[in-house]
Task: inverse folding
């Protein structure tokens, strides 16, 4: 195939002395062996999405490597100096178990220090939520974590945190991108000032564990803790550095770690994907739970911000909870604990995202606390805490298996959430119940909300175009009826409009612009379409609901809801 001139122009830059010999040789090899791959490596620059900058490792502007990260870090260094003139700048850096994460973290530290910025670099891999905590604990201006979350082994990434411990949000992200784009690769200062790089480890661990204990322990009797049998798997990731110690400090001794998945390993050898959202990822943990008769299974993704949970159903069979269910359970537990302790002052709030279950709003109403909703990604929940300093954040989450307990960590936090789940499960078991029974009780009280997610992978240039066309069709030719139910409202977050399909009246949406469409049907069904900000995927979120008059009718109502979701998916040609 012919290589486009704009691609060749970028390639030729990467063959200049500004790039080391190994990089130049790698580019030449791809030019010879795979022009198509060369195009994939250079056809665009890596972008900041909902979870930062993430991509396949290798040479090129559309790949994660020392130069793309060096350029981002040089830009961030310049941006920090502009944002905090005259201040002694400090940043914290953490990294996960992925290939090259440690060496790339050192590259990032080198560039910061070369620009006169003090660096606190974790000496070994650590969970992402600990980085968020460390930024505030060490009074840093920014933080970086090298991670690609649960992406395949060939990926890595670069997440930027601001001084509040939350990820960058508009307009800062756009401002930073503009600064980065204006930098030439030969302007990156890779020469470190080792005197400005300080390695951190145990002191921050101790402080973080203390913070988690304070946020997620609720007077659970020691006998109840002893009776709870837990299977835990870090899925070859970073949580093994903290969660076992945290649970031990909290008084949980009956913890069984999946030994074959306990060692950090960027190849993730025992799973197809280290994503606790996918049932296969927890298969080994569930097998161990069945072998030893455990009550609950918890698995965390490689950087330990997401967690998957399995509990025993009414027949004693291990059943996976989805992210919406764990979010509802944890939020209800926190609200009930605050109520029992008389902690409500009238300024509390919980939070979630536009693609998550509407059931969370029912909880807010029942407990008379505020409810805030944001775009996908915990950076928006962190922004709520920052924007409303006179209000108290209790907890919040999103459907993609993330939860945040309190405001000491400003990102989804599987470390503290794992402890919270153990507290919930222990207390439920002590009163003859279980987390499975508790979610059924909530369905009976607030309505049975059933959610489902379809994630379609569309790789490369062609895939990106296909995703764009799917969104264009749904946006420009909105469906008027789905599964026999009228579409009553279409929210377009890219256009900031909410269209009433009956009256054609248009209202303005106040949330920031984002490529998300939400269809609301007459029966309360909610359907969201959204391209992923960090992966080559388009995601469709479905939420349906019906009243549940009795737990005895759970299976019947669930079958009805499942059938409704299946019909919608078929009618939208998503299978």
Result:
């Amino acid at each position: 195939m012919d290589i486009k001139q704009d691609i060749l122009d970028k390639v030729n830059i990467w063959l200049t002395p500004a790039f080391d010999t190994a990089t130049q040789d790698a580019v030449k090899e791809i030019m010879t062996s795979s022009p198509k791959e060369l195009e994939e490596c250079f056809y665009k620059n890596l972008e900041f999405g909902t979870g930062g900058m993430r991509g396949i490792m290798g040479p090129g502007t559309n790949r994660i490597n020392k130069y793309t990260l060096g350029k981002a870090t040089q830009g961030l260094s310049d941006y920090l100096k502009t944002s905090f003139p005259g201040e002694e700048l400090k940043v914290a850096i953490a990294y996960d178990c992925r290939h090259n994460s440690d060496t790339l973290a050192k590259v990032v530290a080198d560039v910061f220090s070369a620009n006169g910025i003090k660096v606190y670099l974790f000496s070994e891999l650590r969970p992402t939520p600990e980085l968020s905590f460390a930024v505030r604990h060490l009074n840093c201006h920014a933080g970086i974590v090298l991670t690609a979350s649960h992406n395949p082994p060939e990926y890595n990434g670069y997440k930027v945190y601001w001084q509040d411990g939350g990820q960058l949000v508009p307009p800062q992200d756009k401002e930073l991108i503009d600064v980065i784009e204006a930098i030439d690769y030969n302007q990156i200062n890779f020469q470190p000032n080792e005197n400005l790089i300080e390695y951190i480890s145990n002191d921050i661990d101790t402080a973080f564990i203390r913070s988690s204990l304070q946020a997620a322990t609720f007077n659970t009797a020691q006998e109840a803790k002893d009776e709870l049998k837990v299977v835990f798997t870090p899925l070859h990731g970073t949580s093994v550095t903290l969660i076992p110690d945290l649970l031990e400090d909290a008084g949980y001794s009956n913890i069984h770690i999946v030994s074959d998945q306990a060692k950090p390993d960027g190849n993730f050898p025992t799973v197809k994907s280290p994503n606790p959202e996918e049932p296969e990822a927890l298969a080994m943990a569930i097998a161990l739970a069945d072998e030893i008769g455990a009550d609950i299974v918890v698995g965390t993704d490689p950087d330990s911000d997401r967690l998957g949970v399995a509990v025993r159903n009414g027949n004693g069979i291990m059943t996976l909870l989805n992210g919406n269910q764990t979010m509802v359970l944890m939020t209800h537990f926190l609200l009930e604990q605050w109520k029992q302790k008389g902690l409500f002052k009238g300024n509390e709030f919980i939070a979630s995202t536009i693609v998550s279950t509407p059931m969370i709003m029912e909880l807010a109403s029942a407990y008379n606390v505020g409810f805030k909703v944001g775009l996908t990604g915990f950076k928006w929940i962190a922004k709520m805490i920052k924007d409303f300093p006179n209000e108290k954040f209790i907890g919040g989450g999103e459907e993609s298996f993330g939860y945040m307990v309190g405001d000491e960590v400003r990102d989804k936090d599987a470390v503290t959430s794992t402890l919270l789940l153990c507290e919930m499960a222990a207390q439920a078991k002590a009163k003859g119940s279980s987390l499975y029974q508790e979610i059924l009780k909530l369905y009976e009280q607030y309505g049975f909300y059933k959610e489902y997610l379809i994630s379609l992978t569309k790789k490369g240039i062609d895939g990106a175009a296909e995703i764009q066309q799917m969104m264009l069709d749904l946006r420009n030719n909105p469906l008027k009826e789905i599964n026999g139910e009228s579409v009553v409202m279409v929210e377009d977050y890219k256009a900031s409009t909410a269209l009433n399909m009956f009256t054609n009246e248009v209202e303005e949406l106040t949330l920031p612009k984002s490529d998300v469409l939400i269809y609301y049907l007459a029966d309360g069904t909610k359907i969201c379409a959204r391209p992923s900000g960090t992966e080559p995927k388009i995601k469709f979120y479905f939420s349906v609901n019906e009243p549940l008059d009795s737990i005895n009718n759970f299976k019947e109502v669930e079958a009805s809801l499942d059938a409704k979701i299946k019909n919608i998916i078929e009618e939208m040609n998503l299978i």
